[in-house]
Each structure stands twice: as structure tokens, then as C-alpha cells.
Amino acid sequence: MLDNLTLNSDDDSQELRRLTSALLEVVPDPVLVWDQDYKLHLYNASAAALFALSDESLGKPLKAVVRSEALTAFARGSQMLSEWTPDWDGSNRLAAYVPHLQPVAGRASETLGWVLLLHDITQLKGVNRSQNEFIHLVSHDLRSPLTVMRGFASMLEAGAPGPVNAKQMEYIQKILSGIAQMTAQVENIQDAGRFDPDTGFYEMRRSPCDLGEIAVRIVQDHLIPAEKQEIEISVSVADDVPIINVDSLMMERAISNLIDNAIKYTPNGGKIEVAVRATGSQVQLAVHDNGFGVSPDNQKLLFQRHVRIPRAEHKKVKGSGLGLFIVRSVARQHGGSTWVESAEGQGSTFGLTIPLQGANLILPPSND
Question: Least enclosed by CB within 10 Å: which of 78, 85, 114, 196?
């Protein structure tokens, strides 16, 4: 749109400037135009409203206009930025923008300046947030009837109302299994919404946590499901794993999903190994199985929302494709990451890594 516009030359006609300004005004998102010296040359009404600009702002340096280190670094091409939120005061804390940068080329192909467009996604994030809150409320309301059904079915299984025959017991156990599956689905739908670092509404509650102890406890809780599939499951915790300052609920849900995932996709008679260790400046939890493995192309999709890899051996496996998405969300909320190492026919290792830095560290007592 602005190709061949000479931003600093004397022959810039007022007519061309008015035309360019008119083009900028029809863009609903904030647009800023910088010259070669990173000084403000043009802006539209949306940018004026966002950055409180006036005619006196023209010619001011980039950093003074946007008042953001991250956005300044992005506009100068020295930093990637997928999303930007104004942070100079509390009034814009819910606003969110996706920045786009476009160089302005001159007649001799030299760069005369840059156009910075901030695509406003505030409304979209608000819709996503409202949707997640709605899902949270519905999921919460579903838990009560599921708990009631499980309670009465368990009483029937225990023979509280009277003896049951073998066929009745078979039906009761199927009912309990269905309730367990539905409860797990509800929990995952709820977690996927509230833990999502982009649109979630969950407020983290950090406390000193022993990741090894959590892993051991969750493995113990999964012994019976593993034994039903004749799967051997073990856990090892290195001696040098430190206590970290994390959200214990989120960690429990992430580890539980990793182990659930391994049990679901490991064939009967298989083996699962859970390991917690410290590696340099991070704590790592890895779950290894000797299942069917995952192809390189499918590995790229595994941690996305609602992704399930189609495979004939997995047709009977129930799931929503949210387990690994939840694991990734928990890792991201703690500044960490997830990874997978796998080869078809040779099993898989899924990992969760938490960096030993920032808020994840247990702060030493103050001497004050």
C-alpha cells in the first residue's frame, strides 16, 4: 500500500500524504508508520486512541510513542512477538493485539520506513474466555449428578440393598466404568478451558511442591487400571530433584494425564516407566512406554487441542484429545515446555519440563 512512498523527502506532496492518511483511517486496527530513524511519521485514529497521540507526537521516537520494550523490540526486528498487551496502566489490561510489521520500500528498493499494524483480538479473547467460563460452569454442574450416580452404583456393587447375581454385577461394573469415563471427560474439558494460558481464567496458587512425591502418589493411584491391562508401571525419582514453587493442582492434573495417556495407548502386557530428575537448570518428568509409537508427522500435532492420532489399534480407546493439550498448558503456565520422543513400533517418551528460575524457585528467607 505504501510502496515507493518517500517518507523524508521534500517532494512528498501534501496530496499523497492526505491519500495515505485516508487509507490508514479505513483500517479499524491501530496503524503506525515509522521513518528510517524510527520516528513517527503517520498514524490512524485507532492508534491515536490507543497511544494517546496528537500532532505533537509526529517525529517522536518509536519507544516514546509505544511505551513498551517488547513492542519496540518487535518493531525494530530484534524480537518475535505473537501477542501484545498494553501494560502502561490498568485501563487496558484486558486488551490484546497481534502485531504485524511491514517495511516500506523506496524506488531504489531501500527501506524508507515501516508500517506497524496491531490487529485487535480483544473481543475474540473475550468470547473465548466467556466460552471457557460457560464450559467450566456446565462441567461443574455435571459433577454433582455423576457423583450421585457413582455413589448409588457403588452401593449396588457392595450389595447394600441386597445380594446381586453375576449378570447384575456385570451391568453394575459397566455402569461404574461409564461413569468413570464421563467424569474423566468432564474434568479434562474443564481443565482445558481454565488452564489454557491464552484464554483460561484459572488463577495459579503456587506453593512448595515435591514433584517426585506427586508422581509417586499418582502412579500408586493408577496401579489398579494398569493391572487390569497387565501393564507393569514403575516410577523413579532422582535424589537431587529440588522442591519447586508451582501450582500443585495443575501439576497433579498434568502428571495424571501423562500417565493416563500412557496406560490408554500401551497394549496389554506392556511396560510404563515414570522418571523425575533434575537436568541442569530445570526439573523434568518423563513417561516412557513400549507401545506402538508415533510417526514424526503426527508428533507435531500431539499437544494441540482435540487432536487424536488415528490408528486401528486405538479404535476402542475413549478420549477427547485434551489430555496432552492440558499437559502443555500447565507447562506453559510455569514457563516450561513439553516434548515427545517416539518411533513407530518402538514406544514413546512424553516429557514435561519446568525451569528452575523466576517464580518456580523457592525464595530464601529475607534477612530484613
Answer: 78
